[in-house]
Amino acid sequence: MIHFDNIGMRYGMGSEVLKDISFNLKPGSLHFLTGPSGAGKTSLLKLMYLAQRPSRGKITMFNEDVTAAKRENLPKLRRRIGVVFQDFRLLDHLTAVENVALPLRISGGKGAEIEEHVEELLTWVGLKGRMKSRPPTLSGGEKQRVAIARAVIKRPDILLADEPTGNVDPAIAKRIMHLFVELNKLGTTTVIATHDMSLVEEIGSDRLHLQEGRLHMIRAGENVSNLPNLNEEKFDSLEFDSGKLDQNEFGPKPIAGDDML
Amino acid sequence: MTKAIHFLPDEKNHEATRLLPYVMAVMVYLSALALMGSMMLHKGFGDWTQSLSNRLTVQVTTADQETRETQVRQVMQLLRNTPGIEHVRKLNEVEIEQLLEPWLGAGNVTSDLPVPDILDVTVSRALKINLDALNAQISKISGNIHLDDHQQWLGRFLRLMDMVEYTALGILLLVVMATICMVIFGTKAGMAENRETIAIMHHLGAQDSMVARAYQNRFMVYGLKGGVIGLLLAFVTLISLIYLSRDLASGLVKVPELPMFEVGILLVVPIIAAAISMLTARITVMRDLRRMV
């Protein structure tokens, strides 16, 4: 589903923020993306939601080389990807319903159908009474839930979330994670960037761990501090270069009730 | 065709382009005045010069009335026998008084004022007359008979009118170019103001044409709104000018009229303004978006 082959990325003339990134995410897999602040998590997600092109290497998504894809072909690929942005990126002048309905409208959905669907989802994320509210009047947690609803409304093939539970209380966080897991069970390839290690442990999926722009795979249950030489930046045995793709291929992590995969 | 999606902030919250309809109104006002001026000049003076182009005037200025009358008869005979001349008519006293009225005022043409006899000659448009030969024959009757074909001053006048017309069209062209530049500037400012919104729309899978449609629709409305306001103001100005010129004209110059066909053309101006605005906005947006990822 998502295949990175020796990817490097830099902004302008700066140094590389992502270095020699290679991995393969199978359809229907669920992974956490972890790493300290500034490690390149958001940049990696940007490449995945096609907001940036890499400086080098090749990215294949939906069996298409997206690094070479023409600009006019990107929208139809982006419509298959749901993104929860860390800063929500809602349109302040639209209501919650209108924000969540945007992906459906962009895809050519019909008015009444869209509204019914959107209201149902907003009710599900606990925003029944805030449907006509505009983002500036919503709390951080409410905005986040609107952003999540917008990302999942079209049941995307790929769901990318950048700190999706950062602004919500534990009960809502659990509920949101449950939604992600359910979507994953239905076949959505999911990548969740988070600092919340308790959440990672609770779900128990493999991790893509970024440190200083380099990627390491950490299997469920493993601990970063247990990894050999990690703090000494000797990650050769763990890096996923193009020649080691087979051994570093991430399959869908079996999760409870994962019989649909 | 891409479906229009409402995603831009309301017009009143759009700082960069809020005043654009009013600037468009000024542009359309100037365009309408330039266009109308050009069309009225073209039509008014076109009709006038057309009516003069096949006319000759003969003046008999001999002081002695008896001799003058004999010379008038002789010259009329000569003109009627000249091939290519369709009609010769001597202007009566009332007509001559009417001609002098603008200069001397009504009732000021007295019987002791030396006034020449004037012949109005209509020439065939199909046949070309040798005016030099005709002039030579007339001179044989008397040196006090003058043939005026109006061409010398009419030619200069027409060149001046052409220049005025071209200037008006030049102004129109400049106004259109200024309008295009203004719309480009407004569109770019609007896009800069909503850069984040456009980026979000792209992330959600919107095509460039969807984004462009939102802008082109908005700028079409600006163009139409400004066009209607500008045209109304132009009509008020034109009607006021015509009203004032009627008071002042008093026969010296032809009173301008608001020709219906030309007014019909002016009614299309707001639509043209809307179309220019819409197309410019679309092209600008599409070109700018192409530079994005």
List keywords for this structure.
heterodimer; A: about 260 residues; alpha/beta; Rossmann fold; 2 domains; six-stranded mixed β-sheet; four-stranded antiparallel β-sheet; 10 strands; disordered C terminus; B: about 290 residues; alpha+beta; 9 helices; 4 strands; elongated
Describe the structure.
- The complex is a heterodimer of chains A (261) and B (293).
- Chain A is an alpha/beta fold.
- Chain A has helices spanning 41-48, 74-78, 96-106, 111-124, 140-152, 170-185, 197-203, and strands at 2-10, 16-25, 30-34, 56-61, 64-65, 81-84, 158-162, 189-193, 206-211, 214-218.
- In chain A, helix 3 packs across helix 4 and helix 3 runs parallel beside helix 5 (140-152).
- Chain B starts with 19 loop residues before the first helix and ends with a helix.
- The model of chain B has no long low-confidence stretch (mean pLDDT 85).
- Chain B is elongated.
- Chain B has helices at residues 20-53, 65-80, 93-104, 131-141, 151-193, 195-203, 208-249, 260-267, 269-290; strands at residues 55-60, 85-90, 117-123, 145-148.
- Chain B is α+β, with helices and mostly antiparallel strands and 293 residues long.
- Helices cover 67% and strands 8% of the residues of chain B.
- Chain B has two domains: 11-49 and 160-290, no CATH class; 62-143, no CATH class.
